[in-house]
Amino acid sequence: MADKPIEGEKRVFMTGNEVVAWAALAAKAEIMYGYPITPQNEIMHYWTRMAPKFGREFLQTEDELSAGFTTAGGVLAGRKAFTATAGPGNTLMQEPMSMAEAMRLPVVVVVQQRGGPSTATVIYSQQEVTMTTMGGNGEGLRVVYSTATHQELFDYTIKAFNTAWKYRFPTFVLGDGYQAKMRESLTIYDPEARGVTLLPAEAYLGKPGTPGVDRPPAQYRNTYNVEEELYEVLQGYFKDYEKMAPEIAEFDAFDTEDADLVVISHGVVSRAAKGAVKELRAAGYKVGYFRPITLRPLPVKELRALGGRTKQFLVAESANGQLARLLKEAAYGCPVEMLPMYKPGVGITTEEVVARVKEIAG
Amino acid sequence: MEAYIGEYASGKSEVAVNRALQLARLGRRVNLVDLDIVEPCYTLRPIKRKLRDLGIDVLAWETRETMGLGEAGNILRPGNRWALRRPGDVILDIGYGVEGAKTLHLLEGAETDPDLKVLAVINIARPVTGSLPDIIAYVRELGRVDGLINNSHLGDETTVEFVQEGAAVVTAAARELNLPVAATTVLAGLAREIGPQDAVGNPVWPITRYMPETFW
Amino acid sequence: MSVQPAMPKSWRMDTKPHKFCPGCGHGLVLKALGMAIDELGIQDRAVFGCDIGCSLLSWDFFNVDSIQTHHGRTTPVITGLKRANPNLIGIAYMGDGGGYAIGSQHLVNAAARNERITAILVNNTQYGMTGGQMAPTTLPGQKTETTPYGRDPEKTGYPVQGPEMVAAITREGSYVARGTIANLNQLKGYIKKALQNQIEGNGFSFVEVLSACPTNWRTNAEETWNMVEKEMPKFFKVGEIKVPGAGKEGQENG
C-alpha cells in the first residue's frame, strides 16, 4: 500500500472537487462519510477511487443527517473524519453540526454552495453563508473558511483539519458550485514536507483501559437539567471561541489605506472584485479590496478599522445580503455606508463590479 | 467516426469540438454528439448554436430544455442513441471516466461499426493519469480504446516543454498498450512553436479553447 | 443497615439509584445489558450510545464509555464510530420513537448495510419523556395524549412490527429478537447473543424489548404487568426471529 498520496510537490490541473479529495488525503483524513448531492459529488468519487490505495475508508450513508452523525461517530472514535455536502444537504447537516458544537467535536465539512431556497439549482450561489456560519439551534460555535481558488481549496481543507482538532469546534470549508467544477492549475504538496505539522486525532471514546477500573468512564451528554448548567457550559465555550477568534481570523486586502470605497466580497466573487479594484485603481479611482477568508469568526478588528476610515463599502455577493448581514454586525457603529451588490444564485463578473463602482462614483 | 473518452477534465470535449471544426473546415459534413450523461456542466450545450453557425450539426440538449440538471439526472437525448446512423462524420464527446466510457454501449451500432475509432484523451497534469504506470492502468480500465491523444496542459500555464513531456509519456504508454498516438493537441499559439509534429513524431493538432465558454 | 441489590459489575455505582421512574422498564433492560457486558468481558471496549427520550437518562448509567446523541441519531453515531474503529463494540440504545419514527431511516439502512453494531430498542408503546404521546408501537385503542379517544388504526395505522421488518431486510449473519422485561433471563440471553454476533463480526444485531411505562400508562403494578405480559404480546411476539448459522429463520419470518 502506498504510503503518501503526494510526494513532495506537484503542479497539477484539476477540478475543485478533486482538489478537496486530494487535500483530505494529504491532511491524513482517515474516513469520509457522505451522501450524493450535486455539485459536491466528485469529492466522493475521487475519495472512493483513491482511499483504498492509502488505507482510508468511506461510508455512503442514507442521508446527510446520517453523514453528519456518522462523521461525529468517526471523530468520537479518534479518527480524522469528514463529510461534504451542498444546499438541501447542508440544511440536514445542521442537526449533526449542532451536536458537534455542543460536544466540541472536530468534524470537518466541505460545502459546495448551490442555488436556494429549496432544491433551486445545482449550479452555484453564496446563499449558504447564513446557514453555514450560524445554522442549527445554537450560537454559531464553528469555523468557516471561504475559499476563492483551487490552491486555497487545497490549503484550507488541510488547515480545516488542524483548526478543528486544535480548537475542537466543527470546521467548514465553504466553496461553491463554480469552484467545485472549475478547472485550474495548482500545486499539491505533502504538508509535512513543507513544515506544516498535522495535528494528530485523539479518541473521545474507547481509550485504553477499563472504565471505572483503570480510568473514569468517558461520558458525553448534550442534555442539561437546568438553565444554569447549560449557561455555565456555554460561557466556557464562548470564552474559548473568543480566545481562538483572533488566532484564526484571516483576510486578504489591498489598496484600502486611502480608499473612499472598499469592495468587500468573499469566495469566488472576490476573484471578480480583485480584478475590478485593480482595473479601477489603474483608471484613477480611490477604491480598495477587502475579503474575509474566515466568515466565522470574521476578522472583526480589521473590519472595524476599515469601517472607521472608509466612506463606503460595496458588498458584492451571490446572495441577497448574507455576507452583508455579518459585516453589519461586525462594523456596527462604524460611520461607513454599506452599499449592496446582491445577485442571489448568480455569478458576478469583473465588468459588473467595475460598472457598479463607476455608477456609485457618478 | 471518432469517440473521445478519458478521465474527468482531461479535455475530451475540447478535443472533440476542435476535431469537429477541423473536419468541417475541410468541407465535410460533421455531427458532434454530446454523450456526457455524468457531468452537468462543461458540456457542449452552451455553445451549441455557435458551433451550428460554424457548420456543425450538434446533437445536444438546450440547457433550458433540461430540468433540474444534475439533480434529476442527465437524461440521454433520444436522438443521440442513433448518432452513428447519421450521414457524414460523427464525433462523439463521451462523459468522463470508466463509467463514462461505458456510455458508448448505449449507442446503436457502437459494437459493430467498423469505422468507429475510440480515442482516449490524456493530460499528464491530471494526477490520475500523471505517470506512465498510471496512464497504462487507467486506459486498461476504460475497455475498448483504439488510440491515445496527448492533451497535456496546465491551463494558462502550459509551456512547450510541458506538452513535449506529455508527448513522451503518452507515447511510451501507447507503446506499452500497443496503441497508436493519434495526435498531440495543443493551443494554436504553442502549436506554431512546436511545428507539425511533436518531439516524438506524433502529428500536432492546433486547438482553440471553446470550453471556458461552456461553464453551465 | 441496608442490603445492596445485586448489580452488574459494569454498572456505575455512583450514579445509582438510577434516574428512571419507579416501575420503569429501562432499569431492567439495562440490567440485562450490564450482565451481558459482564459475562462477555467487554466493559473495556464497549461504547454505549443513547438516544433522546427517556433513554437519554442512561448516559452515565454504566462504567462504559458513553455518548448521548440526538433523537433518532444513535444508530448513525454508533455506525460511524464502529466504522472508524472496528475494535469497539458499538451499542445503540433507543426507544420506539427514536428507532421506528424519527430515526427509522437510520435503523433500516444500518440493517440493510449489515452494520456490525448492536441496536437495542425499548418498546413501551408511547413517547415517555415528552408526556405520553402516540408512538409507532401504540396499540389499537390505546389512549395517549395524542390519541385521547384511543388509537384508531384506520387513521393512524397498526403498531410497527420492528424486528420482523429488520429480519426481512437483513441477510444471513444478522441476529434479530424480541425480548421482554417479563423474562429477564431470556432477555439477557438475547442481548448477549446480539453482542456476541457483533464480536464475531457476523452482522447487524437487533433486540426489541417489550417494556413498561407505568407513569404514562397511569397503571398500578398489576395493570402494568397485565399490559406487558398479556396485551403487548398480542401484537408483538416474543422470541428469536433470526439467528445466524441456525440454518433456518424463525417462525415469524418463515
UniProtKB/TrEMBL annotation, chain A:
<dbReference type="GO" id="GO:0016491">
    <property type="term" value="F:oxidoreductase activity"/>
</dbReference>
<feature type="domain" description="Pyruvate flavodoxin/ferredoxin oxidoreductase pyrimidine binding">
    <location>
        <begin position="23"/>
        <end position="245"/>
    </location>
</feature>
<dbReference type="InterPro" id="IPR052368">
    <property type="entry name" value="2-oxoacid_oxidoreductase"/>
</dbReference>
<dbReference type="Pfam" id="PF01855">
    <property type="entry name" value="POR_N"/>
</dbReference>
<dbReference type="Pfam" id="PF17147">
    <property type="entry name" value="PFOR_II"/>
</dbReference>
<dbReference type="InterPro" id="IPR029061">
    <property type="entry name" value="THDP-binding"/>
</dbReference>
<dbReference type="InterPro" id="IPR033412">
    <property type="entry name" value="PFOR_II"/>
</dbReference>
<dbReference type="InterPro" id="IPR002880">
    <property type="entry name" value="Pyrv_Fd/Flavodoxin_OxRdtase_N"/>
</dbReference>
<feature type="domain" description="Pyruvate:ferredoxin oxidoreductase core">
    <location>
        <begin position="259"/>
        <end position="334"/>
    </location>
</feature>
<keyword id="KW-0560">Oxidoreductase</keyword>
<dbReference type="InterPro" id="IPR009014">
    <property type="entry name" value="Transketo_C/PFOR_II"/>
</dbReference>
<protein>
    <submittedName>
        <fullName>Ferredoxin oxidoreductase</fullName>
    </submittedName>
</protein>
TrEMBL record, chain C:
<dbReference type="InterPro" id="IPR051457">
    <property type="entry name" value="2-oxoacid:Fd_oxidoreductase"/>
</dbReference>
<protein>
    <submittedName>
        <fullName>2-oxoglutarate synthase</fullName>
    </submittedName>
</protein>
<dbReference type="GO" id="GO:0016625">
    <property type="term" value="F:oxidoreductase activity, acting on the aldehyde or oxo group of donors, iron-sulfur protein as acceptor"/>
</dbReference>
<feature type="domain" description="Thiamine pyrophosphate enzyme TPP-binding">
    <location>
        <begin position="61"/>
        <end position="209"/>
    </location>
</feature>
<dbReference type="InterPro" id="IPR011766">
    <property type="entry name" value="TPP_enzyme_TPP-bd"/>
</dbReference>
<feature type="compositionally biased region" description="Polar residues">
    <location>
        <begin position="135"/>
        <end position="147"/>
    </location>
</feature>
<dbReference type="GO" id="GO:0030976">
    <property type="term" value="F:thiamine pyrophosphate binding"/>
</dbReference>
<feature type="region of interest" description="Disordered">
    <location>
        <begin position="132"/>
        <end position="160"/>
    </location>
</feature>
<dbReference type="InterPro" id="IPR029061">
    <property type="entry name" value="THDP-binding"/>
</dbReference>
<dbReference type="Pfam" id="PF02775">
    <property type="entry name" value="TPP_enzyme_C"/>
</dbReference>
<dbReference type="GO" id="GO:0045333">
    <property type="term" value="P:cellular respiration"/>
</dbReference>
<keyword id="KW-0560">Oxidoreductase</keyword>
